[in-house]
Specification:
The chain has 154 residues and is α/β, with parallel strands linked by helices. It has helices spanning 14-31, 57-66, 110-118; strands spanning 52-56, 71-74, 80-86, 89-94, 123-127, 132-135, 148-153. The chain has a domain at 98-154: Trypsin Inhibitor V, Chain A (2-Layer Sandwich). The strands form two sheets. It has a four-stranded mixed sheet with strand order 1-3-4-2, covered by helices on one side. A three-stranded mixed sheet has the order 5-7-6, covered by helices on one side.
Length: 154
Amino acid sequence: MVIRNKPFAHLFYGAAVAGPVFKEIADKLYASNIASLPLYTAAPLKDSTLFLWSGWKQDFTKVFGKMNMPYHDSAAGSRWSYVQKEDNLVTARKLGTPRQSVPNVKGMGLKDAVYLLENMNLKVVAKGAGKVSQQSITAGTNIANGQTIYLELN
């Protein structure tokens, strides 16, 4: 609905012009017993808090400490780890980074992924923003010196 006024009308604010029209419509709807109609109730959604983060273990430890968030550390003695939800508890696991094969960098931020891969003499080409969602060389594949790996972030 459009309400048109004259260019120099005495009433020109929305509350003064559209307010009375809205009140009239609302009164008619209320009077027609629309309030007695059954309410729509949505079905409960599944828990959408599944997550997977990978990166420098000290960063996770620092964040969990600041947030007073309990977590289970299964990555003792590891510099790199991945964190995920397991049985309603956040769990840190060791991210295997053997020197001769490509690590799984899915879930890492770009800085961590580039640091880890370039220290393994891989050339990194990234596309997108956010966390790594795809990597061109499958984790566990043997590395050839100077090989290029393409990362897709999302």
